[in-house]
Input
Amino acid sequence: MRNNTLSECYKLFAVRTQTSVQNGRRNYSSSSQEPKPFKEVPGLSSLPIIGSAHHFLPKIGSIGPNLNAFDLMDTLHKRFGPIVKMKGVFGRADMVFLFEPEYVEQVFRAQEANPIRPGLKSLEYFRENTQKSTADGLYGLTTVQGEKWREFRSKVNPALLKLKLVKVYAPGLDEVSKDAVNRLKRLKDDQAYLEKNFNLEMTRWSLESVALMALGSRIGCLDDTFTEDHPGRKLMQFTKDMVDTALELELLAGIWKYFAIPTFKKMMNTYQTQWDICATYIEKAKKKINERGYDIPDEEKSIVERLLAIDERVAVIMATEMLAAGIDTVSFTATTLLYHLATHPDKQEKLRQEIRSDNPHKRYLRACLKESLRLRVVVPSNLRRTDRDHVVGGYHIPKGVDVVSPNEYLSRLEKYYPKANEFIPERWLTDKSDPIYYGNAPQMITLPFGFGIRSCIGRRISELEIETFMKRLFDEFKVTWEGPPINIVNKMLVTYAEPFYFKFENAK
Ligand code: HEM
Output
């Protein structure tokens, strides 16, 4: 079986590499069909147990601790060429970074039927141990693979993807956006507050928006009475804890499985709190649906009603997943778009005119979002763990390796997008004859929501949330950025740090 797969790979490799591939400083020739062994893939040197971690140490490391995700990719690409290996740390899988779109395509497409993307080990542990009886064989989307994943995804796909999202949620999301914009109206002159708390304000809006869909009701995050004991605060704290502790808990998985270290204990409690809050809201939503006493047309049913029709546990697990994956991602993406438009007043004015026009198709708004997602993404790379051997770029990549496609980095290379680092929404609206036309870049490069059947299930939801909010916001305000460039912090997800120099004035 394995030999068959390998020989298929060799054939594919032979066809694909009739020409030599030049990139960075290396030149790989296809003259030989015999792949070079995995150990010869260029990359950072490694030590036993700690893998390549010493390269990231301050002062003595060849890379150091401070490179952001983009600069790290740039360094690896320029130093080692189109395929780069990084040895796994503390028993984790080895990683291979692919800087050629055709290599990415080769691996991601081959994995299409069985897309493996390892999830957080601590959440996996929580679902499979602490919650064994509650979840009873259902583990959601983000932490499971293979048949378990496929079964759950095919259950929930219709509920999230096959509904008239705009019809069911546009009015509700518009109400949320109005409330968020009204808060900004009240806060806009308190520059000191906004400089420090803009992220919090955006998170309150994104949580309120996703909760409407995941929990089936508004939860009050935009109310003035959003006190410390509000369940919304706990849900926000949950995502913060998850992002903050992810790296430590991943690296120390070999230890906390046997000794419950404090960070692990804290995270188990946090997972439980998030579950309990979701279960309470889903119970309330169920009661409300039952009290309605009559059925409604399928197309008017909410996501929660559709999920409840499958199984209450499915509704709760999906709510926990939507709240884990749909708060910080959306607020980051909206902040990024706001930043790009605040720093490009001409594009902002063009957008405002479109928003205020009678044309219901807001194509420029859509193009602005796409362009913003090309330039900066909350998940800058996509990843698949190989479930078989591959031959890529002349090297053997065995089963069990994490193959990384650095999408944001590739999307900002001049050879794929002319004026690659400029915010030009027009590239998504122009036609083939125009050199800036987005379609001239290879398909596998700009994938902010991932790839194939395992791509983001919340994509349409996020787009609707962000577009609804932007329509209200830019109709109301002229937004500028009055300071040095925004600060990026790289954690499990990319985030922004204060100060935020947005300035909001009434738009004419
Ligand atoms: C702009 C905001 C968002 C971005 C950029 C984003 C991006 C992504 C990416 C890159 C993946 C991995 C896909 C892959 O491996 O191919 C993913 C998975 C996922 N996202 Fe999103 N996401 C966003 C918002 C949301 C929202 C609002 C939800 C909630 C409904 C959500 C729920 C999920 C879930 C559950 C998965 C795992 C899917 C699976 O494994 O089957 N995301 N997202």
In short: The radius of gyration is 24 Å.
